[in-house]
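Batch manifest, entry 17 of 40.
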Amino acid sequence: MSSLNKGFGKVEVALRWDPSPSGEPAHDLDIVAATYAAGDPYGKPAYLVHFDSRSPDGTIVLNRDSRTGQGLGFDEVMTLELDRLAPAYARVVVGVAIQQREGRRTFGEVAHTGVRVLEGHHALAENDFAGVSGCTAATVAEFTRDGSGGWEFRGVVRGFDADPVSFVGMMGDKFS
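Output type: structure tokens
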């Protein structure tokens, strides 16, 4: 899942997974977006968007939040209106974290995981997390503003072995 494209306006990140087997604690995966200031694109996030939140200006919204994976298809969806994002922000990194309430869980232990990044009906990237199956969190997309103010997309899945709180502190590190 690696590509470089320009000029994105509105994109959607969608996440799917199967519910836990009967009698086991629910698998809860979450989409997280971190927005970085133009003056410090690899520093601390200016703000985070995750369950029960949205960006201060309404340009990044978690439209659907599933706590179990129950449903058909993609159960958790985040919309990013990059064309409306203020010029004060130059980078947005999107990741997925597995809640660790009932003990450590990895992508390999959650059935039928998948993420896709869409612009309209065009899939920019899709991934099943097989390459990071031993990880508990992963970045799935990076959007950076170019010199003309347009947005570039980089779809690289990078795994982390961290709880959700620690993950958001690391997810914005410079990609190699």
